[in-house]
Write a structure and sequence with these properties.
Blueprint lengths: L16 E2 L1 H8 L6 E4 L9 H7 L6 E2 L2 H4 L16 H10 L8 E4 L7 H10 L5 E4 L2 H7 L29 H6 L5 E4 L3 H4 L17 E2 L15 H9 L9 E4 L5 H11 L6 E2 L3 H5 L15
Parallel strand pairs: 1-5, 2-3, 2-4, 4-5, 6-7, 6-8, 8-9
Helix pairs in contact: 5-10
Length: 294
C-alpha cells in the first residue's frame, strides 16, 4: 500500500483506513488483498441481493447475521458474538489465509464493515483495513462493478490467534459510568427514548453518553480527520488512557465507534456485545429517558 501516492485520498490518515485510489492500485498488483463486502443495514438487511447487483470485482460477500453473529436470543441480544470456532470456519470458507491482507467495505460509511474488522481483530488477525468511504468511494473513482454471485474461492487456512479486543458484560456496563465512560452510539431519538423500532423498551443505560456513530463521518461518508474525532471524544471525557466502553442497538454499529477511536489515535475501548437489545430485554435492568445520561 502506498501512502504517498499523488492519487491517494486526503482522508488516508491512519493505517486502519484504505482510500479508494489505494485499493485500485492494490487490486492491480500481487498479491491482491482479500476484499470483503459486508453490506447490511437495520432498515435494509438484503446485503446479498445488493452484492449480486454490483460489487467491487473480486470482493467476497459476508453475511452479517450468519457469519458475523451467533443466533439471536433474548439473553444475549439480536447479534451476539459468534462462537470463535464458527467464526474461524466462516473466514476460512470465504478464503482468508493467515497471511492475507484484508480490506472490508459496505455502503454505509463502514458502520457494518467495522463489525467484521472488530471480529477479525478479536480473532487475532492483524492486517485488516476499512475502505474509507466504502463502495461509494470506489464508484466515485469511476471504477466498474462486478455483478452476480462472484467467483468460487479456495478455502483459506486462517487460524485463530490471540484475542486483542476487549468486551464488557451487562453487569459491567451497569457500573461502567462510575469508573469510565460508557458511550451509546445510537441515534439521539433512540438514546432519548423517543422511539425504539427494534427492542422491547426505549431509552438508554443510566450514565451512558450519546455519540451517534454517524457523526464520525463527513457528508461523503469518509471518516473525519483524527483531530476532529479526538475532540468529539474528549468532549465526553474520552482521552488517552480513559476506560471506555461502547454499545449500540445490537453490537454492530458500536464497532464503528471503536474504529473511530483507532482512527483518532486513541486506545480502542471495549465493546458491550449484547448492547441495548440485551439490556432492554431484562425488565429488572434500569433505563434512563431523555438527553441527560441519568
Amino acid at each position: 500500500m502506498t501512502t504517498d501516492s499523488a492519487s491517494a485520498s486526503a482522508t488516508q490518515v491512519h493505517p486502519l483506513l484504505v482510500s479508494a485510489p489505494e485499493l485500485i492500485e492494490d487490486v492491480a498488483s500481487l498479491p491482491t488483498p482479500v476484499i470483503l463486502d459486508v453490506r447490511w443495514q437495520l432498515s435494509d438487511p438484503d446485503g446479498r441481493g445488493h452484492y449480486f447487483s454490483g460489487h467491487i470485482p473480486g470482493a467476497r460477500y459476508v453475511d452479517l447475521t450468519a457469519d458475523l453473529a451467533d443466533q439471536r436470543n433474548p439473553k444475549e441480544g439480536r447479534h451476539p458474538l459468534p462462537k470463535r470456532d464458527a467464526f474461524e470456519d466462516a473466514m476460512r470458507r470465504i478464503g482468508i489465509n493467515n497471511d492475507s491482507r484484508v480490506v472490508i467495505y459496505d455502503d454505509c460509511g463502514g458502520k457494518s464493515a467495522a463489525r467484521a474488522w472488530w471480529l477479525l481483530k478479536w480473532a487475532g488477525k492483524k492486517d485488516v483495513h476499512l475502505l474509507d468511504g466504502g463502495l461509494k468511494a470506489w464508484i466515485a473513482e469511476g471504477e466498474d462493478l462486478a455483478v452476480g454471485p462472484g467467483n468460487p474461492v479456495e478455502r483459506g487456512d486462517f487460524t485463530l490467534g490471540q484475542d486483542t479486543m476487549a468486551t464488557v458484560s451487562a453487569e459491567e456496563a451497569s457500573t461502567w459510568p462510575d469508573q469510565g465512560v460508557l458511550i451509546d452510539a445510537r441515534t439521539p431519538d433512540r438514546y432519548q427514548g423517543v422511539t425504539e423500532p427494534m427492542d422491547s423498551r426505549a431509552g438508554h443505560i443510566p450514565g451512558a453518553v450519546n455519540i451517534p456513530t454517524h457523526t464520525f463521518l463527513d457528508e461523503s461518508e469518509h471518516f473525519l480527520p483524527p483531530e476532529t474525532i479526538r475532540q468529539m471524544l474528549a468532549d465526553v471525557g474520552v482521552t488517552d488512557g480513559s476506560d471506555t466502553a461502547v454499545y449500540c442497538g445490537s453490537g454492530v454499529h458500536a464497532c464503528h465507534a471503536l474504529a473511530a477511536m483507532e482512527v483518532a489515535g486513541l486506545e480502542v475501548g471495549r465493546l458491550y456485545p449484547g448492547s441495548w437489545s440485551q439490556w432492554s430485554a431484562e425488565r429488572s435492568r434500569p433505563i434512563a429517558i431523555g438527553e441527560s445520561p441519568r
